[in-house]
């Protein structure tokens, strides 16, 4: 039963693990897994099981395969048998589903175009995980996927609950194109293909609740029935009945959560028809007389009770078959043990024979050794002579070895000296290279400066040449002016239009310039 609980919750745990893997690296830090494990252990009535994660493997995080191995060996295997009845196992499963939903719901509730409430989305999440399988895709990728046939069956049941028209061909085409369904794609298909035109949220929520009761709570049928209150009086009272695979429960009203009574159906029931739309349901401990309002409803309830009874009978047969298989396995194990014992006996006899044979061989070997010992004593004296010769040869070899070792040490010292010199030379070479690089850099800088100076010198020479040319032109002009002045001094003053006070400075300047040029 512990393995059953583990297998039924592993899909929920995969969704929680994937939500904790925020970096999509395939691993989750142990600190996060410890919180998840602690809450799960608290649900199962266990404590401090998360501490073992610190000593489980030497990595800071775990992948899903390692984590599910830890859960199987350290958490679910600790759950005792008295806690794992079928009812308790289903309660544990739903509590763990709620825990995993709290971890991963944020990703689904924040999705764009969401048309469902959180409660409806959680119920679809439980249905999906209970109907899907954990499979390995490419490489080490693990995915919880729903087979297209299961998705089609769930969608058809849902559409029928809504009272809409089921278009199987359209849904089959989508299923074939996808190949498999993950939870997000499954919800998206239901929203777009199944109730995209339904605007009443209560109708969708009620249809999902019916789906949840059918797939999760094993509800076969529900409705109002009249129940006989007293066996001695013909008084009938109306109750809301819920028929499950394991029990027939009844309440005061449809929305009432408190049981008015419950009849166990797992041990088998007997159903008998009576007059007036009545029928009797009987198990090993009690019987209940019920009545419907019309014959059609009565036939529906009788058919549903027959389905439940057949299902429980199949479960009993399955249990008997499992017991028979276990008995056959035990018988095969006993036969194999007998064969193994016989083989062990035969093997021990063979070992005893081999030991006896080996003992005889040892006796013969002992005799041979004694004979060889006598021969060895006779050869001892010759060996002493050989030993003395060997000692002398050994001494010579030892001396040669010492000489070789001394030579080796000298060679090693010379080698170390060579290595040291080589290192020094290498250092000098590096230093020279650095100096050469610095000199080259300086030479390059000087060349650049020389080019700069040459350029400046060339500019200066050009300027000097230009000045010389200007000087020559000026000299020529001054000569012309001087000759002109010498000739003009003979002209009378009355011929000039300008006052003499204004001409005298110009003549003086020209004469001064001529004097300067001559000098």
TrEMBL record:
Keywords: Coiled coil
Keyword Coiled coil among UniProt keywords: yes
Leader peptide range in chain numbering: none
Coiled coil: 352-477
Keyword Acyltransferase in annotation: no
PH domain mapped to chain residues: 218-310
Domain of life: Eukaryota
SMART domains attached to this UniProt entry: PH
GO cellular component assignments: cytoplasm; nucleus
PANTHER family referenced in this protein's UniProt entry, alphabetically: RUN DOMAIN-CONTAINING PROTEIN (PTHR14383:SF5), SWAP-70 RECOMBINASE (PTHR14383)
The protein, known as: Switch-associated protein 70-like isoform X1
